[in-house]
């Protein structure tokens, strides 16, 4: 890596918290951020998967630790921030990657299922932003927050009503917070993946749905989790992304640009 590229994208001496890093996409982002030089706090509910992710990061030459968090509970998120500050004295980046999906016909959605999906995607993002930004704005270098949206925030997709609504709200919240924090040294952006088959959405990808997706994706394939790392590093980097805030960046193989 050239000194110029390292200067732009290197995250050395920084601390990143990735909420939802026990999942496939969040875990991949955690590995990429660690390889860029940051110390990564892998945060999630599943300790076994969290420790496995830490070990994977260490094998790649990075440094990481696991902290348990229930991302839709304020006290738990506050405890996460306190633990990170007690150990490291700083938190430079937050990635909000917790979330769940559902593929229930609209008239069959139960209240508890709707609430679960909205809370796991929108409430977790709100709590992370509110609690971590309140500290980031007091730091000399400020901080950067990356929320995770979805192509469903832009285009309606069948059978994911609660998820689509929650992700659209995440994009809206991101833009509002970017404006609110712009003069407080905290940047807030949202990365919107296209179709990256992971555990939360494989169950809704039947043959007919896959065929429809491919017809509307110019690159003609699904995304690979590691393809989210580059966009994430751009948005998180305090140098490469220094003038980027309030951005909704779609990494979707051209899906949102497709028109028949």
UniProtKB/TrEMBL annotation:
Ketoreductase domain location: 14-154
Keywords on record: Oxidoreductase
Pfam families noted in UniProt: adh_short_C2
Gene3D superfamilies: NAD(P)-binding Rossmann-like Domain
GO terms for MF: oxidoreductase activity, acting on the CH-OH group of donors, NAD or NADP as acceptor
Matches recorded under PANTHER family: 3-OXOACYL-[ACYL-CARRIER-PROTEIN] REDUCTASE FABG, SHORT-CHAIN DEHYDROGENASES/REDUCTASES FAMILY MEMBER
Family membership noted in the UniProt record: Belongs to the short-chain dehydrogenases/reductases (SDR) family.
Stated name of the protein: Short-chain dehydrogenase/reductase SDR
Biological source species: Pirellula staleyi (strain ATCC 27377 / DSM 6068 / ICPB 4128) (Pirella staleyi)
Organism taxonomic ancestry: Bacteria, Pseudomonadati, Planctomycetota, Planctomycetia, Pirellulales
């Amino acid at each position: 890596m050239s000194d110029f590229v390292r200067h732009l994208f290197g995250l050395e001496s920084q601390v990143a918290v990735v909420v939802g890093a026990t999942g496939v996409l969040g875990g991949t982002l955690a590995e990429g951020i660690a390889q860029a030089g940051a110390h990564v706090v892998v945060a999630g509910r599943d300790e076994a998967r969290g420790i496995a992710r830490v070990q994977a990061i260490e094998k790649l030459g990075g440094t990481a630790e696991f902290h348990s968090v229930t991302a839709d509970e304020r006290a738990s998120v506050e405890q996460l921030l306190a633990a990170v500050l007690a150990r490291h004295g700083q938190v430079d980046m937050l990635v909000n990657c917790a979330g769940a999906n559902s593929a229930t016909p609209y008239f069959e959605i139960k209240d508890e299922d709707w609430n679960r999906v909205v809370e796991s995607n929108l409430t977790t993002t709100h709590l992370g932003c509110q609690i971590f930004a309140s500290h980031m704005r007091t730091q000399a270098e400020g901080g950067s927050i990356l929320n995770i949206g979805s192509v469903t925030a832009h285009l309606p997709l069948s059978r994911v009503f609660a998820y689509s609504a929650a992700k659209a709200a995440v994009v809206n919240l991101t833009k509002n917070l970017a404006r609110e924090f712009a003069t407080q040294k905290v940047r807030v952006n949202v990365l919107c993946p296209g179709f990256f088959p992971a555990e939360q959405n494989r169950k809704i990808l039947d043959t007919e749905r896959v065929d429809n997706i491919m017809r509307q994706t110019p690159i003609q394939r699904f995304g690979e989790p590691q393809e989210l790392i580059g966009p994430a590093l751009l948005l998180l980097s305090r140098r490469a992304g220094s003038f980027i805030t309030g951005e909704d960046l779609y990494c979707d193989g051209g899906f949102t640009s497709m028109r028949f």
